[in-house]
Each structure stands twice: as structure tokens, then as C-alpha cells.
TrEMBL record:
GO terms under biological process: ATP synthesis coupled electron transport
Domain NADH:quinone oxidoreductase/Mrp antiporter transmembrane: 131-435
GO MF annotations, alphabetized: NADH dehydrogenase (quinone) (non-electrogenic) activity; NADH dehydrogenase (ubiquinone) activity; quinone binding
Gene: nuoN
Cellular component annotations (GO), alphabetically ordered: plasma membrane
Principal location: membrane
Reactions listed under catalytic activity: a quinone + NADH + 5 H(+)(in) = a quinol + NAD(+) + 4 H(+)(out)
Protein name (Swiss-Prot/TrEMBL): NADH-quinone oxidoreductase subunit N
EC number in record: 7.1.1.-
Compartments (UniProt record): Cell membrane; Membrane
């Protein structure tokens, strides 16, 4: 590819990625040359400024027609724009959490590394949202995964953090190998890594043996990516990693990483297998033929996540299983393949980002003072900080899916979608039953906050970053619960 060809590309569509890349380079150099006694929080503020600039860049591209460059390996379409906004807003909130993270928990020595490793992982997620090629998808996935392994164990003198990082690396390596093996089958059958070319090629495949191999590839890719989603029975790493990692890292893994996991699932499974290999008299694609497997994983994920969460005494482990359960709800939307599937998933991830990051902000404040992450530490929170307790209550109600919150609208969209086309009565029933089960552990935390005596009467310190996260999270959860059409109209108007 010569220089003139490179100049001919519309590089402006990659402006958000270039901004994040530039900030990563800047933070790396600043962290290297700043005096050791210099507070590294300044790097966090620069990171937040960079992320806000990237949000503005994405907003400026909202009216741009869908554009592909570099032989369709990078595509800026409505899908990419919508999910990049969730990722960037979530990343900004995580950075506010990181700036407010207390040094006594052991992150101060590595705070500089945290910021640019986190932004590198964010860059990987942004590449994934716009990838039109298996190679760039995999590069984005690894750019997300490798910094995540380091971040999980960034408190290198903490044994629990070391354990979480080791488990994450081992499970992440296995999932990557399985995913790559499945991708290699797709490439071997089609001779291309471009998603558009793959879709065109496999739509013409009618040979039964090749269709069998494509089905095998589908299962391997989905199983490999299920590790990233923390979907049962591939969830075993999540509780230990969530508990051992610093709270901002846990928030990042539960929201940004999970969102990116669903992005790559939609990109590959829908773009490749939706039109793949009509076989037999029914002419159904492989994705439709395999939807029973998706339904089983969705059901098991909802049941395992909600039931095991009931027995947790550590709030970060409880939220790990809650995160697993929410992955199951989103998998219901993916299984049903309804006409509004992408909107349902996007809205649910938006709501989940707001309510989960807000909840982790409260967890960070309470655990920062108590020195532990036990649910019992929330006892009497209403007496110590009434405002904080009320805000946490709103977020828990949204997570539980009560009317008037974004969590309710998200669940309602998925539930209604389960009856579009071919009804999925069993999945819808399991979704309702497990949602009811979730009330017990969410309201268990509320019982501690409002009806248990406080073991510690000290007032809680509310750093500026925590206040920002809580305001955005609570206002967004209530706003999208009362006026969900704002999000729907926004998504419908994207080009």
C-alpha cells in the first residue's frame, strides 16, 4: 500500500482512537519522567480530559454516513458509534473512581501505570466496536485482555490480588485459544478474514460437511467469548477476580470489559453466522440452528448467577454473581434474535453501566473506611450518610428491575423481545423467576443499610470523583427509566 493510497483514506473516522492513543503515549512519558513524589492523580485528570475529548469526537461523527477504510477492516457505522459512547462514558466514570481510590489500599505505587494500562484496554474495546475483520477484532480483544490481566493483579504485594490475576490469566488464555481456533476454521472454509466477504462466501455454502465445520466453529467462538462475558458455566474466574482486584478495576471488568465482550459477540455471530450455510429443507442459518445452545447457556447463567449470589457475604463477590446474572439477561436478547435485539442489548448495557458503576462508587467509599468488603459493613449506612444510602438504594432498585428505573426498561425490552417471532416461553419464565430471586440479595443490602444498627458511627468522606459518578449514575438511571424514548430516538437517528 503506497503513501498516496494511505492519504486517500478518511482518517477522521478514527479520531476518537487517535485521541486515546495520543493520551496513552503522553501518560506513559509523564509517568516515566515525573518525580516519584509527584501525585499521579494528575495523570488521571489528563486521562479524563482525553476521554472527554474522544466523546466529543464521537459526537461530532454522529451525523457521518457509515464509512469503511483500510479495505473494510475499520468501519464507523451506527453500531460502532452507539457502543463507543457507552464505553467512553463508562471509562470516564471509572477514571473518576480511580482518582478517588484511597492510597491505603495499596494502589499508590502503581497509580501511574493504572491510567495508561486502563486507556490501552479502552482503546482495544474501541477497535473492536469498529472492526470489520477477524484480525482487527482479535487485536482489539488482546489489547483489552492483556492490560486487564495486569490491572487485576496491580497490587502486586497483595496475595488475593495475585491470585485473582493468576486465575484471570489462565482462564483468559484458554478462552483466547478456543476463540482463535474457531476463527481459524472460519478462515479455512472461506479463505478470508473480512467479515463482509466471509458472510458472502458462507451464505453460498450448501455442503453438509462444511456446514458441520461451521457449526463447530460457531460453538468454539461462542464458548471462547463466553469466558469474556462471564457466562455460566465459564464464569468460575469472575468472583475471585472481582474480589481480589482493586475496586476501580472490578468496576472496569464488570462494565467496560463485559460491554466489549458483547460487542465482539454481536459482530462475529450476527455478521458471520446469521446468513451462514443454509442446510436441509428448512433453509435455516447456523445461528438459528444453534439458538437452543444459546438458550441453555442464557438460562444456566441467569440461574447460577442469581442463586449463588444469595449466599455471598462479600459484596464484591455478590456483585460478581450479579454481573453473571445480568450477562444471562442479555444473552436472552441474543438468543431470541428479535428485530429490536441490538437496541435491547445496547439499552441494557447503558443502564447496566450507570447502575453498576454507581453501586461500585458506594462500595469504594464504604470499603475504603472499613478496610473490608463485607456486606455487613453497610449496616447503618442510612444513619451515617443518609444521602449515600438513598442513592445506593435507587441503584439497587434499578439493578433489581423495579419500574421507574432504567433497569426495569432494560429487562422489559428483553422480556418483550422473547415473544417476538418464535416465542421463548421457558426463557421468559426463567428470566422472571431469577429476577424475583435477585430481589432477596439486593434488598438484603438495603436491609443492612436502613434497618441494622451501625457498627461504626464515623461520617463517610465523599471525594469529588465519587460525587460525579453517583450523580451521573443516579440521574441517568432515573431519567432513562422515566423517559426511555430518549435513548430509542437517539439510536434510531444514527446513520
Amino acid at each position: 500500500m503506497d503513501i498516496e493510497t494511505l492519504k486517500s483514506f478518511n482518517w477522521s473516522v478514527m479520531t476518537p482512537e487517535f485521541i486515546i492513543l495520543g493520551v496513552i503515549a503522553l501518560l506513559t512519558l509523564l509517568d516515566l519522567f515525573l518525580p516519584k513524589k509527584q501525585d499521579r492523580r494528575i495523570l488521571g485528570w489528563i486521562g479524563i480530559a482525553g476521554v472527554l475529548a474522544a466523546i466529543i469526537a464521537v459526537a461530532s461523527l454522529l451525523g457521518t454516513e457509515a464509512t469503511s477504510i483500510l479495505d473494510d477492516t475499520f468501519t464507523l457505522d451506527a453500531f460502532g458509534k452507539a457502543f463507543k459512547l457507552i464505553l467512553l462514558v463508562g471509562a470516564a466514570l471509572v477514571l473518576f473512581l480511580a482518582i478517588s481510590y484511597e492510597a491505603k489500599e495499596g494502589l499508590e505505587d502503581y497509580r501511574g501505570e493504572f491510567y495508561y494500562l486502563f486507556l490501552a484496554a479502552l482503546l482495544g474495546t474501541m477497535i473492536m466496536t469498529s472492526s470489520g475483520d477477524l484480525i482487527t477484532l482479535f487485536i482489539g480483544l488482546e489489547l483489552l485482555s492483556i492490560p486487564s490481566y495486569i490491572l487485576a493483579g496491580i497490587k502486586k504485594h497483595n496475595r488475593q490480588s495475585n491470585e485473582s490475576a493468576m486465575k484471570y490469566v489462565i482462564n483468559g488464555g484458554i478462552s483466547t485459544a478456543i476463540t482463535l481456533f474457531g476463527m481459524s476454521y472460519v478462515y479455512g472454509l472461506t479463505g478470508s478474514t473480512n467479515l463482509f466477504e466471509i458472510a458472502t462466501t458462507i451464505s453460498a455454502i450448501s455442503d453438509g460437511q462444511q456446514a458441520y465445520l461451521l457449526g463447530l466453529a460457531f460453538l468454539m467462538i461462542f464458548v471462547g467469548l463466553s469466558f469474556k462475558l462471564a457466562a455460566a458455566p465459564f464464569h468460575m474466574w469472575a468472583p475471585d477476580v472481582y474480589q481480589g482486584a482493586p475496586t476501580p478495576v472490578t468496576a472496569f471488568l464488570s462494565v467496560i470489559s463485559k460491554t466489549a465482550g458483547f460487542v465482539i459477540v454481536i459482530r462475529i455471530l450476527i455478521a458471520v453466522f446469521y446468513s451462514a450455510a443454509p442446510t436441509g429443507a428448512s433453509g435455516e442459518s447456523i445461528l438459528f440452528k444453534m439458538h437452543d445452545y444459546l438458550a441453555v447457556i442464557a438460562a444456566v447463567t441467569m440461574i447460577v448467577g442469581n442463586v449463588i449470589a444469595l449466599k455471598q457475604s462479600n459484596i464484591k463477590r455478590m456483585f460478581a454473581y450479579s454481573s453473571i446474572a445480568h450477562a444471562g439477561y442479555i444473552l436472552v436478547a441474543l438468543t431470541t434474535l428479535s428485530t429490536n435485539m441490538v437496541y435491547s442489548i445496547w439499552f441494557y448495557l447503558l443502564a447496566y453501566m450507570l447502575m453498576n458503576l454507581g453501586a461500585f462508587a458506594v462500595i469504594q467509599v464504604v470499603s475504603g473506611q472499613s478496610g473490608s468488603t463485607k456486606i455487613a459493613d453497610f449496616a447503618g449506612l442510612y444513619r451515617r450518610s443518609p444521602v449515600l444510602a438513598v442513592l445506593m438504594g435507587i441503584l439497587l432498585v434499578s439493578l433489581a428491575g423495579f419500574p421507574g428505573t432504567a433497569g426495569f426498561i432494560g429487562k422489559l425490552n428483553i422480556f418483550v423481545g422473547a415473544f417476538a417471532g418464535t416465542p421463548h416461553y421457558v426463557l421468559a419464565s426463567i428470566m422472571i423467576a431469577t429476577t424475583v430471586v435477585s430481589y432477596f440479595y439486593y434488598f438484603g443490602v438495603m436491609t443492612q443499610m436502613f434497618f441494622r444498627p451501625a457498627a461504626d458511627d464515623r461520617k463517610l468522606n465523599m471525594p469529588f470523583g465519587i460525587i460525579v459518578v453517583l450523580l451521573v449514575a443516579v440521574v441517568g438511571s432515573v431519567l432513562f427509566g422515566i423517559m426511555p424514548n430518549i435513548a430509542l430516538d437517539f439510536l434510531n437517528n444514527l446513520k
